[in-house]
Specification:
A hairpin with a 2-residue loop joins strand 4 and strand 5. This protein is globular. The mean pLDDT is 94. The protein has 146 residues and is mainly beta. The protein contains 1 helix and 7 strands. The chain has 2 domains: 50 residues, no CATH class; 86 residues, Beta Barrel (OB fold (Dihydrolipoamide Acetyltransferase, E2P)), CATH 2.40.50. The strands form 2 sheets. It has a 5-stranded antiparallel beta sheet, covered by helices on one side. Strands 1-2 form a two-stranded antiparallel sheet. It binds zinc ion. The site of zinc ion (ZN) has 8 residues, from loops. Zinc ion binds next to loops.
Length: 146
């Protein structure tokens, strides 16, 4: 596979390949320790909780809570200029709030976001105006009425 240009993620890179394979199948997948059952993110070489070296990609619910976010109106890098305004955020998963995902928030007004509000994963094409191709990426949105 041709290596995509920055900032598109390289979906074939081994440490995160399972994450992108999951996204392509509309599943949020996180490495889970075979020994102690803990979810680990960002994918480590060994479990952060017990040191176990066997980790298996596991689909999670995709539900979580909004930990933090920012509203970017002027992109720091020119590659992101066509995406602005956008809302990068950090979401903690319902299955284990120690798991914090850096993500994009979609389908929402940044003025209306609230710390700890329930969010859910959605899968959207990620693309950039000057880069060929696109990648299906997990993003999050507030759960309506949640
Ligand atoms: Zn473990």
């Amino acid at each position: 596979m041709k290596h995509p240009g920055f900032p598109l993620p390289d979906t074939s890179w081994e440490p995160t390949r399972g994450f992108w394979e999951g996204a392509a199948a509309s599943e949020l997948r996180i490495p889970r320790c075979d020994a102690c059952g803990s979810l680990n993110w960002y994918p480590p070489p060994a479990c952060r909780h017990c040191g176990g070296e066997a980790l298996t990609w596991r689909a999670v619910s995709g539900r979580g809570q909004l930990f933090s976010w920012s509203h970017v109106t002027r992109a720091l890098f020119k590659e992101y200029a066509s995406k602005a305004p956008y809302i990068p955020g950090i979401v903690v998963l319902d299955e284990d709030p120690r798991v914090r995902l850096v993500t994009l928030l979609v389908d929402c007004n940044p003025e209306g976001l609230v710390v700890d509000e329930p969010v859910e994963c959605v899968f959207r094409p990620l693309s950039f105006s000057e880069i060929e191709g696109e990648v299906i990426a997990p993003m999050f949105r507030p759960i309506q009425g949640g």
